[in-house]
Amino acid sequence: MKRVWKIVLWVIGILLGIIILATLLVSPVAKSYINSHGEELVGRKVHVEGLKVNVYTGHVAVHGLSLYEDNGEDLFASFDTLDVKASLLKLLGKTVKLKHITLSGLNVNIIQQGEKFNFQSIIDHFASDEDEDKDTTPSDWVMKFYNIRLSHAQIHYHDLANGKKWELPDVNLRVPGFVLGGEEQSEGGLNIGFAEGGHLNIDGNYNSQHNTYDLVAHLEGFALKNILPIATDYMRIKQMDGAFEAHLRAEGDIDEILKSHISGSLILKAVDLKNGNGSLASLNKLEVRVNNINLDANSYDIQEITLDGLTAKYEQWKDQSTVDDILVPAVETQPAASSEESETGKKTQPAASLRIGKLAITNCNLTYDDHTLPDEFHFPVTNINIEATDLSLGGENNAKLRATLPGGGHLMVNWKGNIDNWKEHQSLLLSIKGLDMKQLSPWTVAYTGQPVEDGVFGLTTRLQIANSQLDNQNKIDIYNARVGSRRKDVEPEMKIPLKTALYILRDKDDKILIDLPIKGDIDNPEFSYMKLVWKTLGNLLVKVATSPLRALGNALGMGNDNLDFMAIEPHQRGLTSENYHTLGDLAKVAKSDSLVIITLEQRMPAPQNDTVARGYEFRNEIVRRYLMEQGVPEGQIKVLTGEAVEEGEETGYSITSEMKMEE
Predict the structure, then answer these.
(1) Residue 175 belongs to what H/E stretch?
(2) How far apart are CA 584 and CA 578, in angstroms?
């Protein structure tokens, strides 16, 4: 019996010795195996400086691991220490429990060349050669991970195709607990420091039983320089200064992530965008406060948008504009057929719903430069302020705009209308006061061939759009308008005697008041508002310039009934009192402007004999002498006998006028 126990003790001792020896050897053996067979394990060369494994406590510590690129020389990723401790006995109860996971000093180099990344071979190594049916049977295993920490990680990104680089020099992750399959709630946090400045802090929790999450993110001091390498894929910019802040909360169901509710605020500060030609746009501050965003419902409920100190320039050239010059052309892709999507049952996006509780735009400056005109058009609009409340895509909206125009002028706009169905209803009241007319000279040169040399311009516009029909009533108020001679180097859009017309239209106080109604169908493919304005204005000016008598009569406060025709009976001898009254009015008009020429053409039946013909000429002489006696120079009067009228036609003097001004 003693011998038996002795043998048993020897066997137990040997077994314990083997276990102890195996425990002592597992770390160096594992380290040697990893260093020798790294390519078999992960498809690449791997080197580990230190490895400690304790099978009793479930503790594993890896020190100085380096994973190389496919060439076996360049470093892809490395870390200082990976420390993991597991509860092995929990495996008996179908529970994987890691008491802590700590990874420090992680350094990853991501390289992209075209559409290929430098980690593609690792993905391919672990990819299955055969498609396997996914097992959808719910697992009864529970995964519990506690005290997860990633400290001071560095991520470097390099795009070889265009030389862009992007870095995250300080990434930190902390997860106190994360559970899959249990009822415990998981929580954690992420902290990222950015190379050009700024920190991102994310805290959240996850309920695996209900598959819901609640996430809070704070991005502070984020320098826009961080995204310059990405922005240059879409915009031709050289410099991007400014800071971005975001304070957001998102909560919802992981399985229906688009139905999540997002709220919070977004802030841009001290933004300055530049290209090779200088500043493109700058901004003092933009803040957006969000009540709720639901991407699944395409719903956006914005509490408030405030924008202050925007300065930007828009330029138009013959073949492109500022937008074309800044934006990088998008790569064309084959569009997906919407009909096929509907046939496969793919969910269609609902119509967008947008509400902005308050919109406030202050202290903005916009400049429009047009290089397509014969002369450069430079038009800065400063001190722009816009305010609106309860804006939405559908329904009635209200907004007010105030701005300063060049030369001390002012712009005011009150708008009411529908945004989504804008052709159905729009109502706008626009007022321009004190605009220096020289600012509009490039446009008058392009359309009429004549420059504006002086003048102050005012305009009141009432515009209505109802079911695509435009009704625009304009009142133009001009003072001291002066137009230069027609330019010989310009082929104008319209032949308008602008100088003559303005000369006639102005009254004794050098003022011009014009009513200009404009109507049109905005659904017409040839509809152009500016061309319609110039056509309507041009017709008016041509009419005034070719028949100045009425315009001058209006300026003198006369009626128009007696300035077109002076009735006379064929056998009437001399002139009646009414005829002398008409001639007196004509004399006043002629004396008011030495450039007007008045023609009186006698329209009578064909004379039956020489006596009647001499009577016609005698009457012409009476008219001519009376006008001269009233002080009208002879050079401004033309009195003659025209063609004979037919029986039944009105007889008398047809009165016309013209200007002898040279354009």
Answers:
(1) strand 164-180
(2) 10
Extract the tokens encoding 8: 């048993």
Q: What would the pLDDT profile of 319-365 be if each residue is shown by its tens digit?
A: 888 887 777 776 555 554 444 444 445 556 788 889 999 999 999 99
pLDDT for residue 547: 64
**Which residue, 272, 200, 276, is CA-closest to 241?**
272
Largest separation between any pair of C-alpha atoms in the chain: 177
**Alpha-carbon distances, residue 213 vs 18, 185, 631 (angstroms):** 49, 10, 96
Residue of 446, 447, 452, 509 lying closest to 482 (CA atoms): 452
The string of pLDDT tens digits covering residues 115-133 is 888 888 888 887 754 455 5
User: DSSP assignment, residue 496?
Assistant: -
Cα 651 to Cα 644: distance, rounded to the nearest angstrom: 9
Q: What is the 3-state secondary structure (H, E, C) of 68-111?
A: ECCCCCCEEEEEEEEEEEECHHHHHHCEEEEEEEEEECCEEEEE
Q: What is the DSSP string of 563-607?
A: SSEEE--TT--S--HHHHHHHHHHHHHHHH-TTEEEEEEEE-PPP
Rounded CA separation 402/435 (Å): 14
Helix ranges, 365-477 (H): 441-448
Give the pLDDT mean for 488-512.
78
Higher-confidence position of 147 and 336:
147
Nearest to 204 by CA among 220, 191, 218, 216: 216
Task: Name the nearest CA neighbour of 573 among 609, 611, 547, 608.
Answer: 611
The residue written with tokens 């200088």 in the block is 278
Q: How far apart are CA 359 and CA 303, in angstroms?
A: 9
Neighbours of 74 (CB within 10 A): 11
pLDDT digit string (tens) for 446-491? 988 889 999 999 999 999 988 889 888 989 898 999 888 888 899 8
Q: Are 176 and 202 in contact (CB under 8 A)?
A: no
For 527-557, what is the HEC assignment? Answer: CCHHHHHHHHHHHHHHHHHHCHHHHHHHHCC
Q: Which two tokens stand for residue 223?
A: 């320098």
Distance between CA atoms of residues 385 and 307, nearest Å = 10
Q: C-alpha 56: how far from its chain's center?
A: 64
| Bridge-based pairing state of the strands 596-603 and 469-483 | unpaired
Token pair for 421:
């169905």
Highest-confidence range of 15-19, 45-49, 491-495, by mean pLDDT?
45-49
**Please, which contacts does 392-395 make with residues 24 or more away whose CB atoms are closer than 8 Å?**
392/353, 392/354, 392/355, 392/356, 392/419, 393/352, 393/353, 393/354, 393/419, 393/420, 394/418, 394/419, 394/420, 394/421
Phi then psi for residue 422, to 5 deg, are -65, -25
Q: Is the pLDDT of residue 654 over 70?
A: yes
Average pLDDT for 379-407: 92
